[in-house]
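wait is this the right file?? whatever heres the structure
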């Protein structure tokens, strides 16, 4: 029996306007190197536009390629209107926009507006004593060794840094080189809206806003007596006001806009995406990607809690549906481990589990996001030495884990599952040296699974992971049921199974997914009676036993009537 809202509220308004689209995230530094320096670039993306068009992609989300010292791989911007020479030139960007448009694709940029680089001109002027630019950031008076609050940086250590020359502290929720902007200052908001307008004029068609729900800080800064501070600054007091203002003044209300929401709440996300409020098209929330955090700690390992995962997926799907809001559908990105290594089985059932995860995510209500390499089943690289890592967060936490008493091997075992570098290894185009990513030495080592997971192998195989992704992306374009139908959830027999139903008019789609390497009882056979197979991680229909649908290891199946 299905549980959920049967009528999709959004179908009567514009919340579904991106329901038939698929977004492909490109981590520029690791996608394709065009000049042999070991670093991916804009020209490399241009080389692969035909590949992306063949996959069926609608939007290309580019991670930051702006001027930056790259302490945090570009999420520390020193000039929002300049291209980092490592990635090419503004002429390259213009050619990219033109080439994508010629193939029916649009460009979506990643805007980092919670903070800048400490090398940004604004911050340098603040450090030089310019009061106007000090008000662009969050400075507080104080004395050394007594930070204004006990808040912790998300990268480890205090969230405050003392500037001796000023006798003041500045807030950095992330790395010390990433000072937080003061959004309460109207001049800051005007500057950032101007940045968005600048890129609109350059032909950009959408924006992803990095950790945008952290931009509105509390009116009074106090200690967090129960945590690291996030409960005091997340989804802050003026966040909805600021988002509405940015969307209106930058003129992006009709564009695809997605907010990355850190430690957010469903109630706030219902407001962010309610189409009557004119804030954002959709949101990234991460609660479902914390189900393998032991005691809520990212750096403490456990197997994913599928029961908890199922409940979170259900709650967020139904919650946003109830208000006409919209989900971004994803299991991986540049900050997350590879899905097939995290939620699947990247050894015995590599291709089957990767296909199951694709079916599970792509047929839900929302807009799917494909992170580069996901479509070929790339897994975690399996690094075994700290020297192989480049990510600032990973290097910081390696030191923290060692300080906490972890052995070298124990600390490395944690990074092998949690590091952001797990998803940042070069895109695997071929099985040959450096996976076809570069003719030089890559900035980070290629993954160990390039021989099996690469584009050259999979694009010609009709039964490959890549071919299934292409099929699912095309189905979303062809079938209004997938693009804008309602969603409800079926009661299941096994705790390792998730089952949902999509409905529109007289059409009904049932999706069954097993997160197990054993045979699992799923639902009564009557739930799929008379239905035909639309997509599967196996070549044949699900099996039945004594009136019960049983799923094979890591089976994903979509059936339609």
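ok assuming it is, sequence goes like this
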């Amino acid at each position: 029996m299905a549980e959920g809202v049967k009528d999709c509220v959004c179908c009567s308004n514009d919340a579904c306007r991106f329901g038939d689209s698929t977004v492909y995230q490109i981590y520029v530094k690791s996608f394709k190197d065009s000049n042999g320096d070991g670093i991916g670039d804009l020209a490399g993306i241009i080389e692969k536009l035909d590949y992306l068009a063949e996959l069926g992609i609608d939007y290309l989300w580019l991670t930051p390629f702006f001027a930056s010292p790259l302490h945090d791989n570009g999420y520390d911007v020193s000039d929002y209107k300049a291209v980092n020479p490592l990635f090419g030139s503004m002429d390259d960007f213009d050619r990219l926009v033109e080439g994508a448009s010629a193939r029916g694709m649009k460009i979506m940029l990643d805007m980092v507006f919670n903070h800048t680089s400490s090398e940004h001109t604004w911050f340098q002027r603040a450090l030089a004593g310019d009061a106007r630019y000090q008000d662009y950031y969050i400075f507080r008076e104080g004395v050394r060794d007594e930070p204004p609050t006990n808040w912790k940086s998300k990268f480890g250590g205090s969230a405050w840094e003392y500037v001796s020359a000023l006798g003041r502290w500045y807030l950095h929720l992330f790395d010390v080189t990433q000072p937080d902007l003061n959004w309460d200052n109207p001049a800051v908001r005007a500057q950032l809206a101007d940045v968005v307008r600048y890129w609109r004029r350059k032909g950009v068609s959408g924006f992803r806003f990095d950790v945008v729900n952290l931009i509105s800080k509390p009116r009074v800064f106090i200690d967090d007596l129960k945590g690291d501070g996030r409960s005091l600054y997340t989804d802050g007091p003026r966040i909805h006001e600021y988002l509405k203002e940015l969307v209106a003044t930058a003129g992006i209300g009709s564009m695809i806009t997605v907010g990355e929401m850190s430690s957010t709440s469903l109630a706030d996300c219902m407001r962010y995406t309610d189409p009557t409020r004119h804030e954002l098209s959709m949101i990234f929330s991460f609660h479902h990607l914390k189900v393998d955090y032991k005691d809520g700690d990212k750096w403490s390992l456990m197997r994913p809690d599928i029961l908890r995962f199922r409940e979170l997926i259900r709650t967020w799907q139904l919650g946003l549906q109830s208000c006409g809001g919209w989900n971004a559908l994803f299991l991986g990105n540049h900050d997350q481990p590879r899905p097939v290594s995290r939620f699947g089985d990247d050894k015995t059932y590599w291709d089957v589990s990767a296909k199951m995860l694709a079916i599970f995510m792509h047929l839900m209500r929302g807009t799917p996001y494909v992170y580069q390499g996901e479509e070929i089943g790339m897994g975690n690289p399996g690094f075994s030495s700290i020297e192989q890592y480049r990510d600032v967060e990973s290097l910081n936490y390696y030191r923290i884990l060692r300080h906490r008493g972890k052995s070298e091997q124990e600390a490395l075992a944690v990074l092998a599952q949690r590091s952001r570098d797990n998803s940042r290894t070069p895109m695997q185009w071929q099985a040959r040296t450096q996976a076809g990513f570069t003719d030089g030495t890559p900035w980070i080592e290629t993954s160990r699974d390039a021989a099996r997971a690469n584009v050259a192998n999979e694009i010609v195989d009709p039964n490959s992971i890549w071919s299934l992704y292409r099929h699912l992306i095309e189905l979303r374009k062809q079938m209004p049921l997938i693009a804008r139908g309602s969603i409800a959830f079926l009661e299941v027999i096994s705790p390792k199974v998730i089952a949902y139903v999509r409905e529109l008019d007289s059409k009904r789609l049932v999706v069954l997914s097993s997160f197990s390497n054993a045979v699992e009882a799923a639902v009564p056979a009557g739930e799929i009676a008379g239905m035909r197979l639309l997509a599967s991680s196996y070549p044949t229909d699900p099996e039945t036993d004594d009136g019960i649908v049983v799923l094979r290891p890591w089976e994903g199946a979509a059936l339609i009537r």
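The longest helix spans residues 306-323. so i think its the right one actually
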